[in-house]
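Structure first, sequence second, as always.
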């Protein structure tokens, strides 16, 4: 009887550990995709954003809401030039084939008004379709310079 109980416990632990391993792998994939976003800003890489942004993607920042096409245009031809961008304190929250990533995006560069250093609190919603993660919605809050 003890042998059967021990075998059942080991089997349960093996399945649980495999599930955690898959989740950890998917979390790493999502964090890499978030870093691809930051690098895409620096390189004005439309191909990266076309790959990351799902059809129907919606983006909100503070008081505005824009579409996938608007984001693609702003990244490639917007007035700001991003010279540095990185993510901080990212966390992945999994809900099956959906994941929410929260964190900080720190961006530096220059635009029509001169140099800038911006810090955004972000919440990104990703969906896994056909074994590929794409972002379906994103919200960024630009922290006012006086609060940094």
């Amino acid at each position: 009887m003890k042998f059967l109980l021990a075998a059942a416990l080991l089997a349960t632990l093996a399945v649980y550990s495999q599930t955690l391993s898959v989740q950890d792998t998917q979390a790493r994939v999502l964090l890499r995709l978030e870093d691809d976003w930051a690098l895409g800003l620096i390189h004005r890489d439309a191909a990266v954003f076309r790959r990351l942004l799902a059809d129907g993607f919606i983006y909100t920042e503070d008081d505005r809401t824009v579409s996938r096409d608007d984001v693609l245009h702003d990244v490639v031809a917007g007035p700001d030039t991003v010279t540095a961008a990185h993510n901080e304190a990212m966390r992945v929250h999994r809900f099956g084939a959906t994941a929410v990533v929260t964190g900080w995006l720190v961006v530096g560069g220059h635009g029509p008004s001169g140099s800038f250093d911006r810090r955004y609190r972000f919440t990104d919603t990703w969906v896994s379709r056909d074994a590929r993660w794409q972002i379906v919605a994103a919200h960024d809050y630009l922290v006012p310079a006086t609060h940094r």
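Margin note: The CA atoms of residues 80 and 111 lie 4 Å apart.
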